[in-house]
Amino acid sequence: MALSKSVESSSLAEVIDRILDKGIVIDAFVRISLVGIELITIEARIVIASVDTYLKYASAIGLTLADSSSIMRN
């Protein structure tokens, strides 16, 4: 069986549609310290998804929309 290479390119609209359909999570943790003294700590979790995708996965882990809005305020 021979392998064939696909040369099709994706448009920006197709990429955005795929990201919104599947969702993407960016999780970052940064800690800056000097001589053992913590100066700055940054924790960020960025979720990009459609509302439908978010609600589907949030309900699977028991998270409600009210829970996530209170997390965003903290």
Describe what you observe in this structure.
With 74 residues, the chain is α+β, with helices and mostly antiparallel strands. The protein has one domain. It is 41% helix and 31% strand. It is built from three helices and two strands, in the order αββαα. The chain is flat.
List keywords for this structure.
single chain; 74 residues; alpha+beta; structural molecule activity; Gas vesicle protein A; Gas_vesicle_GvpA; GvpA
Summary?
41% of the residues lie in helices and 31% in strands. It has 74 residues and is of the alpha+beta class. It has one domain.
Number of strands: 2
Structural class: alpha+beta
Gyration radius, rounded: 19 Å
Helix residue percentage: 40-55%
Largest sheet: 2 strands, antiparallel
What oligomerization state is this entry in? single chain
Give the percentage of residues in beta strands. 25-35%
Count of spatially separate domains = 1
Rough outline: flat
Pfam family, one: Gas_vesicle
Protein name: Gas vesicle protein A
Subunit structure: The gas vesicle shell is 2 nm thick and consists of a single layer of this protein. It forms helical ribs nearly perpendicular to the long axis of the vesicle.
Subcellular location: Gas vesicle shell
